[in-house]
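Supplementary material to the annual report.
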Amino acid sequence: MSGTTEPGVNMERRGVRIVDTFAEAFDMRAARVVITANSLAWAMTGARAMTGFATSVIGCKVEAGIEGELGPEDTPDGRPGVSVLLFAFDADGLSHRLLDRIGQTILTCPTTAAFDGLPQAGERVIVGGHLRHFGDKYQASKSLAGHRYWRIPVMDGEFLVEERFGVQKGIGGGNFLILARDQDAALGAAEAAVEAMRKVRGVILPFPGGMVRAGSKVGAKNYKKLSASTNDAYCPTLRGRSGVKSELPDNVNAVLEIVVDGLDRAAIENSMRAGIDAACRPGVVEITAGNYGGKLGKHHFRLHALMGTA
Amino acid sequence: MITLTLREQPVVPLEAEVVTPDVTASLANDAIRALPVYLGKKQCRVDDFFTVEGQASDEIEIRGDAKQVKWIGRGMTRGKIKIDGNAGMHLGAYMKGGSIEVSGNVSDWLGGEMTDGFIRVGGNAGGQVGAAYRGSRSGMRNGTIIIGGTAGLEIGMRMRRGTIVVGGLVRDFAGLEMKGGTIVLLSGAELRTGAWMNRGTIVSLAPIPLLPSFLYAATYNPTFLRMYAKHLGTLGITIPYDAKDGGYRRYIGDSSVPGRGEILVWNPHAS
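Predicted assembly:
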């Protein structure tokens, strides 16, 4: 991935240059899981376990993250909850990941239950309908208001899981890069961006702490079998190295990237807008974005268009 | 809305299965007046017993003591029937959708073998609410029946899905041969509750006599009941679910058949 820059008017925000480029993102399939528990802390424990090791669909088969906390009035069983979003290439893959992750991390987590968070989605995949077999025929189902749920006996009582989960189109791979004078400045700006972006519903930031330091390019120059390798053009320590065409201004010594997946374009735009604005702070030199020249992903998020409407 | 006002109490039960929005919604009042009803084996017209007023609609209001009028809303799929008074047997039987509201009492077989829809009765109901007809394998398969008062024998007999809530005391054999679904007894029931039940849930908020073939399992607070509490709360019904208030004693059975059903009896903490 490179930050293909196109000539255009200069844009700055609080002294930070915003490059006239775009983030390139892809069609994905998304699911939302509402995890409830006797306390928000236990719902969050389950949500964190479920969204672990889910940073990149390439390496983890799924991208997942916490969308937000839910009050008792917003959950099906009236308990505190956490909303989780998962993104994969297709519905079939997503159904397997839902089955694996709910089965291994929510079924096992004390007091939790798992509900479909996309009841309006037309496409549906079976999850609880498969997980029920863990009940070894001691399970029971309940149908209420058009939804079917499975009650699986477990050692602290019963695990309740919805039979089917909705799947809808989503967008994965929205991104921007924060180019800063030093590591502290990059980290501080990225933290501020993540905090702002997490207030937007309908998106997740799947990487650790919402940010990624190991940006990648497609393939590798020196290991032909690798599908992805380090984004040398944005590695400060490689500036000046033979064979490396650095994209970094001279005064940039650290870069962090924020990747955002969303249920729709508007959600990604809103989160990127909030994140870029928050990242424009002292010590940051430039905000740019990663793309493949517009050839791979059909969703392009132009930074100037986004920030021009801020 | 079409309004049917009972002019004359039938001397024997009147069979009026044409009184359903599916039949009347597209008809002019004269056509509704001419619809057939049966007094015993004698075919009569609707206007032999009712005055018909109002405009074509999928809402019907029935005024008067219709306790002798059977099969109202039979097989209805949409719309609403409001009965300002009592209603006779088989109200909403085979219902597939829509809603029925009754301010007074209803007789036996309310919502018999219904597959969807909503029925609310303000007063008392007879027996066999949501039940399977004799010789039939399954009773109600979905939908919701709410009864404000008491109910008679064999409610929910062989029901497979759906929810029945009864505010007052229920007579014997509630949930007889039940196959699924949920019965909520806000004031408990008399004898032999859940006899021969295979699956399904009977929730009682009051202590009830249990058959010896129901075996105590545990006291807990089922998560699914929280969903029912939330759902029923929107219908004005409160059921307890919070562990700080108490727990449900779970009895599984009926072990005299291969029963995988359950009776949950609310057990509040001593105050």
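The CA atoms of residues 15 and 38 of chain B lie 5 Å apart.
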